[in-house]
Design a protein that fits this description.
14 helices; ten-stranded parallel beta sheet; TIM Barrel; alpha/beta
Length: 310
């Protein structure tokens, strides 16, 4: 199975829907960007519920809601509400590397504290209506932190654990630590999903050959660098520039429809463009013409010019 990684600000419902319309079946499932229980604030987390409402997601990549937080009572409340609207799996984010998150022992900030992880799982597991899966890193400061967590994680009925084999401190830089990942894999009793730095079919092949036990792979940035990557992995799909440009145009249309100020629309369009342009054999100058567009209409026009010239 190929799973779309959660990426706050990038893989929300609008993106997932456009992707599904352009490349149906390319991705089997997705984890939503996190609903945050900051200070245990349920109302704040619920504000973002639109992203995972089942009706809105019916013509999109199937989604599993993700929760970021360490407040067990509110976690159970939010997860059970999500179950009541139709979700049988909830994902717990203990991998987020952002400083303001980790400083409060949230996200990957909880990884050096196995007792806190156990206390939370002790409270939530017997009370949760949905099944629980986890998305995590190897540690916050040190990749060996995971070895103190494995005996705890093995004690609970988890659906699966996605591991991004970096530490929180690394953020997204440096190498993924595949040797520690291999040791982790041999000790965890749960199904493990691999996530990290799969940007080409060769990257995918390297991971699946080294870890034949791994069935499911989660991909984040690789899909924004090359939206055809899942189809290339699954069906040997060749490069298809018109399909890629059609996707970028559809995304631009969808952003144009968002009920936000044009300034914010353009910021979003440019953010996606800076990532997606990597998949096109275009010059820096051509890329800049899109970056300098002032409106969604102008963006579309310039994208079409690029398409005509390819
Ligand atoms: C902009 C951005 C936002 C992210 N937001 C989330 C998030 O909401 N929840 C989460 O678990 N991981 C989040 N991540 C981490 C990704 O899900 C993924 O683990 C990471 O990008 C590594 O995978 P990749 O190399 O395939 O991109 C985010 C990453 C980025 C770059």
């Amino acid at each position: 199975m190929l799973i779309l990684a959660p990426m706050q600000g990038l893989t929300e419902l609008m993106f997932r829907k456009v992707y599904h319309q352009c490349f149906p079946g390319a991705l089997d499932c997705s984890i939503s960007p996190f609903l945050s229980l900051t200070h245990g604030n349920l109302a704040d987390a619920w504000k973002k519920i639109g992203d995972v409402l089942p009706e809105a997601n019916s013509d999109s990549i199937p989604v599993i809601p993700q929760i970021l937080g360490k407040e067990p009572i509110e976690f159970v409340e939010l997860a059970n509400r999500l179950y009541d609207i139709g979700y049988t799996e909830i994902n717990w984010n203990i991998g987020c590397p952002m400083r303001r998150v980790t400083a409060k022992h949230r996200g990957s900030g909880i990884l050096p504290y196995p007792d806190e992880v156990r206390a939370i799982l002790d409270h939530i597991i017997p009370r949760l209506k949905p099944d629980l899966s986890i998305k995590m890193r190897l540690g916050l400061h040190n990749p060996d932190e995971i070895f103190n967590l494995i005996p705890i994680l093995n004690d609970y009925p988890l659906l699966n654990i996605t591991i991004h084999p970096r530490t929180g401190k690394q953020q997204y830089s440096g190498q993924v630590d595949l040797d520690t990942f291999a040791r982790t894999l041999s000790l965890l009793h749960h199904k493990v999903i691999y996530n990290g730095d799969i940007c080409t079919t060769a990257d995918y092949r390297r991971i699946s050959q080294r870890f034949p036990k791994i069935q499911d792979i989660m991909i984040g940035r690789g899909i924004l660098y090359d939206p055809l990557l899942p189809l290339k992995i699954k069906n040997n799909h060749p490069d298809d520039l018109p399909a890629t440009l059609h996707f970028i145009l559809s995304l631009t249309d969808a952003i144009d429809q968002l009920p936000i100020r044009q300034e914010s629309q353009m910021r979003k369009i440019k953010e996606y463009w800076c990532l997606l342009r990597r998949s096109l054999p275009i010059t820096e100058q051509q890329a800049m013409t899109v970056l300098h567009a002032k409106t969604p209409d102008e963006t579309r026009l310039r994208l079409r010019t690029i398409l005509d010239n390819l």
